[in-house]
Specification:
Strand order of the largest sheet of chain A: 1-2-3-4
Radius of gyration of chain A: 21 Å
Number of helices of chain A: 5
CATH class of chain B: Alpha Beta
CATH superfamily of chain B: NADH:ubiquinone oxidoreductase Nqo5 subunit
Distance between the termini of chain B: 49 Å
Largest sheet of chain A: 4 strands, parallel
Order of helices and strands of chain B: HEEHEEEEHE
Helix content of chain B: 10-25%
Strand content of chain A: 5-15%
Oligomer: heterodimer
Order of helices and strands of chain A: HEHEHEHEH
Largest sheet of chain B: 5 strands, mixed
CATH architecture of chain A: 3-Layer(aba) Sandwich
CATH topology of chain B: Beta Polymerase, domain 2
Distance between the termini of chain A: 52 Å
Shape of chain B: elongated
Number of helices of chain B: 3
Strand content of chain B: 25-35%
CATH topology of chain A: Rossmann fold
Chain lengths: 171, 163
């Protein structure tokens, strides 16, 4: 046997008898919810390239439970607005947001979604928070994948600290 | 100058005020009223079979204020022609090219909404990139830079920009 191999001793096998987890119910619920994000990609512009980069293997948003994009707002709880939103498109964005079930969160991905970016003109909405409430803003043109991951982690922290409706006196 | 350009200049001399070559493109300055004759000549006699673009330039402060610019390309000769015509602010009206080129329909709609140029003969000048209810012409130099015309009411605490 290789001397570095750790032998499995029969007497050390798991029995399950001492597997105890101490936590609070609301923290447990929050912990479970924060790893179960179903993003709806509302992708309008060049930030989409960075969105693809952060979704794929090297950065891998799957680690945060945000891997499976749902292409209908009815099945998603995280609206990721990736790119510039114009005034002509704002009613579409609002409709998508209204079709999502509660609880729902919104991430403004990139500086255009955050504040309009350098498109300060007749066509661009100067930040999607004028139309829908935003939980996390990720500026950058485009943002680095590290920034996106940090934004998702901040959103997870926010979700974990929110109280779900089922957590009440009788729960 | 390209020999074909010389022939075009000779043939259309009566309609063209000024002709020159810029970066390999023949530039013709004409009166807006002569547009259809000039374009028909280019299309039928010189085989400029592709209508690439129509746009406008806003020379704010000059008179006449607007300059409408058309581009044509010949897939046979592989040459380009640019036509320019000045129109006044009071009546920014030029003839439409929908009878000669089908592609003119959409491009004239865009030029109409952005600069307010009227294309006589184009029946369908609805907005194509902008939306119904948009006031003014955003690519004119006197359009207020900060003016916002949102289609959905803003959330509480946000006011659309005005000028």
């Amino acid at each position: 046997m290789n001397p570095r191999t750790i032998p499995i001793r029969p007497e050390a096998q798991k029995s399950g008898a001492f597997e105890v987890l101490c936590t609070r119910k609301d923290e447990l619920i929050g912990w479970a919810r924060k790893f179960s994000l179903f993003p709806y990609p509302f992708v309008t512009a060049c930030c989409a390239m960075e969105f693809m980069a952060v979704s794929s293997t090297p950065y891998d948003t799957d680690r945060f439970g945000a891997a499976l994009p749902r292409f209908t707002p009815r099945q998603s709880d995280l609206l990721m607005v990736v790119g510039t939103v114009t005034h002509k498109q704002a009613p579409v964005l609002l409709k998508v947001w209204e079709q999502m079930c509660e609880p729902k969160w919104v991430i403004a991905f990139g500086v255009c979604a955050t504040s309009g970016g350098f498109y300060n003109n007749y066509a661009a909405v100067q930040g999607i928070d004028r139309v829908v409430p935003v939980d996390v803003y990720i500026p950058g043109c485009p943002p680095r994948p590290e920034m996106v991951i940090d934004g998702i982690m901040q959103l997870q922290e926010k979700i974990a600290n929110q109280q779900h409706l089922i957590v009440n006196d009788r729960f | 100058m390209n020999p074909l350009f010389d022939r075009i200049r000779e043939r259309l001399a009566a309609k063209v005020n000024e002709a020159a070559e810029a970066h390999g493109v023949l530039v013709l300055r004409i009166d807006a009223a002569a547009l259809l004759d000039v374009v028909r000549g280019l299309k039928d006699d010189f085989r400029f079979d592709m209508f690439s673009d129509v746009t406008a330039v806003d020379w704010l402060g000059q008179e006449p204020r607007f300059e409408v610019v058309w581009h044509f390309y010949s897939t046979v000769h592989r040459l380009r022609v640019r036509i320019k015509a000045r129109v006044p602010e009071g009546e920014p009206r030029v003839p439409s090219l929908v009878g000669l080129y089908g592609a003119a329909k959409f491009m004239e709609r865009e030029c109409h909404e952005m600069y307010g140029i009227a294309f006589a003969g184009n029946e369908d000048l609805r907005p194509i990139l902008l939306y119904e209810g948009f006031m003014g012409h955003p690519l004119r130099k006197d359009y207020p830079k900060a003016l916002e015309q949102p289609l959905v009411p803003y959330r509480e605490g946000f006011e659309p920009g005005r000028e």
